[in-house]
# Entry
Amino acid sequence: MQTRDKDNDNKKQAAEEKRDLDLENIVGNLFIAEYQAEKLRTRLADLVYGYRPKMSNNKASTQIFKHNNKWYKLSLRVDEVNVTPANDIIEQ
# Structure
């Protein structure tokens, strides 16, 4: 009888572990689907409403987002500058 109880407990534990893994997979898939839907929604809004940044050679990174029903556009551009003092340039 004790072996049956152990086998029964092992089966219950295995079933619970399988259920937990299935639940984790479902939740993970939901998160992925939600992320993909949001990305597609953003791309569609960019195309329809013209918020897609124009392709140019200014090498600026532009992000558009909505917060509290207001649209914000964030642009970041990195320029290379020479920080060598003028005296060092003349001496060389």
In short: The helical segments are 2-49, 86-91. Residues 46 and 83 are 38 Å apart (CA to CA).
